[in-house]
């Protein structure tokens, strides 16, 4: 989606944190199939396959806390097509989006329950 389409479809961004493109690519290199994000006012946490901790700027989470799970290939596609050097992790009313320059990705599943 373009940024304008994402705002119209999913509403305004409530919380936003940035991650450097190089750092995100390093995280993607440490997982095979999926990457998961959780974002709150304190920071963000990133998990890989089997909920393996990849990065946390906040307090780590309980086993059953809900993360937003994306296909690794879809995030790589966003990074490839986007123009941003800083990737924005965005919590909106009902969805979680990832923004790179002019493009926004919203194709996540909640984990749990859909962790596989």
Short description:
The chain has 116 residues and is α+β, with helices and mostly antiparallel strands. The chain has a single domain (3-111), classed as Roll (DNA Polymerase III, Chain A, domain 2). The protein has 3 helices and 9 strands; from the N terminus they run αβαββββαββββ.
List keywords for this structure.
alpha+beta, DNA Polymerase III, Chain A, domain 2, about 120 residues
Please describe what this structure looks like.
By secondary structure, this protein is an alpha+beta fold. The chain has a single domain (3-111), classed as DNA Polymerase III, subunit A, domain 2 (DNA Polymerase III, Chain A, domain 2, Roll), CATH 3.10.150.10. 22% of the residues lie in helices and 41% in strands. The protein contains three helices and nine strands; from the N terminus they run αβαββββαββββ. The protein has helices at residues 3-10, 21-28, 72-81; strands spanning 13-20, 34-40, 43-47, 53-56, 67-71, 86-92, 96-100, 103-105, 109-111. The strands form two sheets. It has a five-stranded antiparallel beta sheet with strand order 4-3-2-5-9. A four-stranded antiparallel beta sheet has the order 1-6-7-8, with helices on both faces. The model has no long low-confidence stretch (mean pLDDT 87).
């Amino acid at each position: 989606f373009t940024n304008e389409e994402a705002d119209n479809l999913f509403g305004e961004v409530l919380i936003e944190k940035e991650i450097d493109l190089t750092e995100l690519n390093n995280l993607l290199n440490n997982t095979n199939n999926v990457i998961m994000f959780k974002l709150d006012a304190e920071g963000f946490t990133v998990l890989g396959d089997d909920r393996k901790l990849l990065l946390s700027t906040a307090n780590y989470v309980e086993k059953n806390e809900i993360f937003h799970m994306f296909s690794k290939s879809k995030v790589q596609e966003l990074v490839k097509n986007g123009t941003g050097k800083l990737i924005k992790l965005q919590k909106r009313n009902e969805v979680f989006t990832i923004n790179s320059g002019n493009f926004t990705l919203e194709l996540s599943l909640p984990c749990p329950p859909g962790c596989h």
